[in-house]
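Attaching the record inline, Q. Sequence:
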Amino acid sequence: MNIHDRMIVFLVLALFLGATMEYGHGSKLLGILLFGIALLAISRMTLKATHRKTHAWYALIGIPIILADIAYNVYNQSDLGTLDTMTFLLGISLIASATKSENLRSMGEFGVYVAITFIALFTLFYGTFSWFIHEFDHYAVLMPSMHLIRLIGISVDVIGTETVCMHAPGGDITLTIGGPCSGLYSMFLLISVIVGYTAIENIRDARRITALLGATIAVAWIANLLRVSTLYLVAYWYGQDMMMTAHTHLGWIIFVVVAWGLLLGLSKIEKMERAEKKEKGEKEEE
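Structure, as predicted:
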């Protein structure tokens, strides 16, 4: 994947996450606009294809997936969430995989890997291991972020597993640290990117991939911890309304920064593999 493609992957992921956050919690018009721009950016991809053969029947799976998700949300009158976005991505990617365009088919393969990995992680943790989410929110997000803001002299008390009471100048503020605040959505998406990238680029260095996965999880956790702590400060100084505005935009903007670092890491792995293969080939010629 060349630098042009990496920048587009970076742009598409940021736009997808931004579209989800804006549509569900901010401006619906901006969310739709970001989603449309992401679709346009996808058409500019030139990734390698793992499977050269066109499977037209993929579209017969992708179209019902999209329609089913839309029907579900319309019937339940619910807002689109991250899982909906990834379901749309899966459907669109399957349709793209059925086209005759090499570029779209390649991007479709990448999207399928990303979407399936995310949906699998989401289903596993929010379904089978749902009990883990509350523990994670409490011990990995709420407690560390609370200690961070206490270090700068702000008084805050834990009043529930995912709830704190912050003693602000304008009066006490009760905040719930859970759901999207856990940062697991971004973590799942970043892991999905690694899976999709390594699969379509045929990267086989398990040691480096494992190290990158570990670093990704750690960086995603730290980034989310800083995000939650920043939201505490916004609520403390400017009130809850301003905090909710920041909550809508801050998450996906931070994701952009983390995703950029991830892409740089993937690029480094690719260069190292290429250099090792070249060195190995030169030794065999000798």
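The beta strands are 156-160, 163-168, 171-176. The chain has a mean pLDDT of 78.

More tomorrow.
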